[in-house]
Amino acid sequence: MVAKPDGIIKRTKKSRDTYQVKLSYSIAGINYNMDSDWFDTVAEAEALANSPVQIAYDSIKPENAVFRSDFDKRDPNEGTVSALISAGGLGSVMALLLTAVLLYKFPSLRRS
């Protein structure tokens, strides 16, 4: 879905100007608003406002939209299974290291 720009907001803080683009989108006849990140120059904000801004949203909570470019940056290889395998591997290495340290510090734990 493409959001349309509703204007650019300027904010001055500590003698530094930043700019934000206000965007709106409509789903099933209901209008929603979202804001971009803050930009350092007005040219960056205008570039975003003048380009088609695609958003992705959850069908259950369409008010929680994200920029499509942010959504597409996710690594498809990062999933639950890969996270569990990584955690299991790290846990196994840590368990081996702890066992080696305990056997070194407490020789009475070793079998004779």
If you had to describe this structure to a student in words, what would you say it looks like?
The chain is of the alpha+beta class and 112 residues long. 35% of the residues lie in helices and 32% in strands. Strands 3-2-1-4-5 form a five-stranded antiparallel sheet. It is elongated and about 80 Å long.
Structural class, judged by helices and strands?
Answer: alpha+beta
Give the N-to-C terminal Cα separation: 70 Å
Number of DSSP-assigned strands: 5
Strand order of the largest sheet: 3-2-1-4-5
Write the layout of secondary structure elements.
Elements: E1 2-13, E2 16-27, E3 30-35, H1 42-50, E4 53-56, E5 66-67, H2 68-71, H3 80-105
Antiparallel strand pairs: 1-2, 1-4, 2-3, 4-5
Features:
5-stranded antiparallel beta sheet, 35% helix, 112 residues, 3 helices, alpha+beta, 5 strands, 32% strand
In short:
The protein is an alpha+beta fold.
